[in-house]
Specification:
Length: about 60
């Protein structure tokens, strides 16, 4: 149920032009995502919020 809701939120955000980065997904949620066949291959997934912020800062610096 959580995985389905995540997918719906991400899909809605994509329609608004928002790039979504998932962070800190619990193992149970990740297993559910895989078992019900939701395809997150087009998403950016990071292990932690800190890693996501670091990567975003690098992208911002490179685009200047």
């Amino acid at each position: 149920m959580v995985a389905d809701q995540i997918f719906k939120v991400i899909d809605s955000l994509r329609f608004l032009g928002v790039e979504t980065i998932l962070t800190g997904i619990r193992p149970e949620v990740a297993q559910t995502i895989v078992s019900i066949g939701i395809d997150f291959s087009s998403l950016t997934i990071k292990s932690s919020l800190q890693k996501a912020i670091e990567d975003l800062l690098i992208r911002v610096k490179n685009n200047k």
